[in-house]
Design goal:
Length: about 290
C-alpha cells in the first residue's frame, strides 16, 4: 500500500509542508498566466455579468436527495432565478423547475474532452444542451472546456484550484475550495451579485451512509433526486480506511467556511452542512415532507 504519511499533516515534516504549499502557489500562478493568455476573451464576456443581479434572490440547486422535499409550484411562484448543475435538467424536479443558469464542470459533460471518459454519455450531453437552448438559460463552464461547446449563451470561469486561497467570489481567479460543481455554482451566484442565495441538494450527507463490508471494502450511498447509487472507494487510493475517508472529505465542509454566510441559507435542515443558516420564512416545502 502506498505511503500516505503526507496525507496526514501531523505525520509530515515542516519542510515537506512548505514545499507542498509553495508548489500549490507556483502551479496556480502558472496556470493562471496560461489562462490569461489563451482565454482572456471568454473571461471578459463573463466579467460583463459581474454584479448584474443586485437586488434579486436566487436558488442554487444540486442533485441531492433533499431536493425531493421541495414543492415545485411554491418555488416557481417566488420567481427567483434558479442556478442548477450537472444532471438536474434531466430529473423530474428539473423539468418542473427549469433553470435560468446552469453550471457544468466535470470533463464527462464535454464530448470531445479528455477525462471521466467512463462517465461520458454523448446522447445525454446533447440532450442537456438542447434543453438549455430551449430555455435560453446561461451556461457556465470552465474556460478550458468552453471550446468544446457551441451553445451561444456560454460563459467561462476559472477552474484552477488553489486551496490556500480565500477566493470564493471572483470566478476569474483561482478558487479556494474543492472541485465540486455545486460549490462553483454557489460562487457564480455570488459573482452575479444576488442579495440572497438559497441552496438545496448540496447535502454532503455521505457520512450518514458509510458502510464497510466483510472484505473491509469501504462504500457509501449517494442519495440523488432520482435513484440512489452506492459508490465503492478505491482501496489503493486515499480511502482505504474510514479514517482516511473522513480526513479527505473534511475539506468539503471546511472550504464552505470561506463563503459569506450572511447571504446564503441552506434549505435542507437535516444536512450535515452547518456553515449556513437554516432558518427562513419561505413556504417552499411539500406539505407531507419533514424539513
Amino acid at each position: 500500500m502506498a505511503n500516505r504519511n503526507f496525507f496526514y499533516y501531523p505525520d509530515s515534516s515542516i519542510i515537506s509542508i512548505i514545499i507542498y504549499r509553495l508548489r500549490i502557489i507556483v502551479l496556480s500562478l502558472a496556470r493562471q498566466l496560461h489562462q490569461f493568455l489563451y482565454y482572456r476573451h471568454f473571461m471578459l464576456n463573463s466579467k460583463d455579468l459581474e454584479g448584474t443581479k443586485h437586488g434579486q434572490n436566487a436558488f442554487v440547486f444540486a442533485c441531492g436527495g433533499s431536493m425531493n422535499n421541495l414543492d415545485p409550484i411554491k418555488i416557481k411562484a417566488l420567481g427567483y432565478d434558479i442556478i442548477a448543475v450537472n444532471g438536474y435538467l434531466l430529473s423530474d424536479v428539473g423539468s418542473k423547475l427549469p433553470p435560468t443558469h446552469y453550471v457544468l464542470s466535470d470533463p464527462c459533460w464535454f464530448n470531445d474532452s479528455v477525462g471521466n471518459d467512463q462517465y461520458r454519455d454523448a446522447e445525454r450531453n446533447d440532450q442537456v444542451m438542447n434543453l438549455l437552448a430551449n430555455l435560453k438559460a446561461k451556461l457556465f463552464v470552465p474556460l478550458n472546456y468552453i471550446k468544446y461547446i457551441t451553445y451561444k449563451e456560454s460563459y467561462g470561469f476559472c477552474d484552477i484550484e488553489n486551496s490556500l486561497s480565500t477566493n470564493v467570489v471572483n470566478i476569474g481567479k483561482p478558487r479556494g475550495y474543492n472541485s465540486v460543481t455545486a460549490y462553483k455554482a454557489l460562487a457564480i451566484a455570488l459573482y452575479l451579485g444576488y442579495d440572497h442565495i438559497y441552496i438545496c441538494g448540496i447535502d454532503n450527507n455521505y457520512l450518514k451512509y458509510v458502510e464497510v463490508d466483510s472484505s473491509n471494502r469501504l462504500s457509501y450511498t449517494v442519495p440523488h433526486i432520482g435513484k440512489s447509487t452506492r459508490v465503492y472507494l478505491d482501496a489503493d487510493g486515499f480511502c482505504a480506511t474510514v479514517g482516511e475517508y473522513m480526513y479527505r472529505d473534511h475539506t468539503l465542509f471546511e472550504h464552505l467556511r470561506k463563503f459569506p454566510h450572511s447571504r446564503i441559507t441552506n434549505l435542507d435542515s437535516t444536512s450535515l452542512i452547518c456553515e449556513f443558516n437554516k432558518r427562513h420564512d419561505l413556504d417552499i416545502y411539500l406539505d407531507d415532507k419533514v424539513h
